[in-house]
Amino acid sequence: MRGLPEIDAKTLHEIMQPLNIIRLSCGNIRARMGGYSAEDAEYLIGKLTRIEEQVVRATELLQDLKRHNADGTPVEDA
Question: Which of 28, 34, 57, 61 is at 20 to 30 A from 73, Cα to Cα?
Answer without folding.
Answer: 57
